[in-house]
Amino acid sequence: MNVPKDLRYSKDHEWFRVEGNIATVGITDFAQKELGDIVYVEIETEGEDLSEGDVFGTVEAVKTVSDLIMPVTGKIIEVNSELESTPEIINSDPYGDGWMIKIEVADPTTAEGGLSAAEYATLISE
User: Fold this and answer.
1) What is the CATH number of domain 23-110?
2) Domain-by-domain residue ranges, the chain?
3) pTM beyond 0.90
4) Residue 1 burial (CB count, 10 A)
């Protein structure tokens, strides 16, 4: 299971990377494997201010639909437009081209929260 050490993680299986006051968010390698082949991503919250724990969209796989949960509080400033035509890039590259949203973080110090790679690895191995 790929769990990059330079990222932070949520218990809901989202990863995030904060640079300045911008956080890039996606789902983890574990999450995409659990979901299976991803066929559709719906994110209609661009421009909205959402709190940590709010639903920002859904991801649909062949057998299930799963909510996407905000790992930090902030305003969604960008949605990965590539996901409209090629949602399967989440399966092949969840930490790179398969990113989902960019958030203008409300309080950059809260972005230091979440789980470390080691803590997330422990969570998914239980």
Assistant:
1) 2.40.50.100
2) 23-110
3) yes
4) 10
Which parts of the chain are beta strand (E)? 8-9, 14-19, 22-27, 38-42, 49-50, 55-61, 65-69, 74-79, 101-105
The 10s digit of each residue's pLDDT in 34-86 is 999 999 999 999 999 999 999 999 999 998 999 999 999 999 999 999 999 99
In this structure, what token pair is assigned to residue 85?
């035509």
CA separation, residue 26 to residues 80, 91 (Å): 10, 11
Counting other chains too, the contacts that 119-122 makes at CB distance below 8 Å and 24 or more residues apart are 119/9, 120/3, 120/9, 120/28, 121/1, 121/3
The number of residues making up the chain comes to 126
